[in-house]
Design goal:
This is Mediator of RNA polymerase II transcription subunit 9. This protein is mainly alpha-helical and about 130 residues long. The protein contains 4 helices and no strands. Helix 2 (about 20-35) packs antiparallel against helix 3. The longest helix is centred in the last third of the chain and has 42 residues, at about 80-120. It is rod-shaped.
Length: about 130
């Protein structure tokens, strides 16, 4: 449970602000609007406006990418993540098998001790052994 809390706190402290993505979307919309105008980019002013809007979008995209790359814990690509998941699955299965083995041994010991106790009918219980000394 503590591990989950640490992951939760870590993810909330190291996030990319939503304003970064909002500004990216606005810059992309600006580029699209300029390129989809009825008169297109036939004039030098229109070409200059598209170039400026495109450069602003690229700049914001570069900043967002830098923020995303610098997030802690983001070093694993998809293949690495799949390998970690496979490794953890194998580890879980091994631990489950060990637990089943331990459980069956414990049951065998309990039944052996229990049958031994029932066979020792002459065993006496010392009441002093279970009484605390004051």
């Amino acid at each position: 449970m503590k591990f989950t809390c640490v992951l939760y706190m870590s993810s909330t402290l190291n996030t990319i602000p939503s304003t970064v993505y909002d500004s990216l979307l606005l810059k992309l919309v600006a580029v699209l609007e300029l390129t989809q105008k009825p008169d297109g980019i036939s004039t030098p002013q229109a070409k200059q406006a598209v170039l400026q809007a495109t450069n602003e979008f690229k700049s914001h995209l570069f900043n967002a990418k830098a923020l995303a790359e610098n997030l802690p814990g983001g070093e694993l690509n998809i293949d690495d993540q799949d390998n970690v998941i496979k490794m953890l699955t194998i580890l879980r299965d091994c631990k489950r098998d060990q637990l089943i083995d331990l459980s069956s041994r414990s049951t065998q010991v309990d039944s052996a001790v229990g049958s031994q106790m029932f066979n020792d009918v002459g065993m006496e219980i010392d009441s002093m052994a279970s009484t605390p000394m004051t």
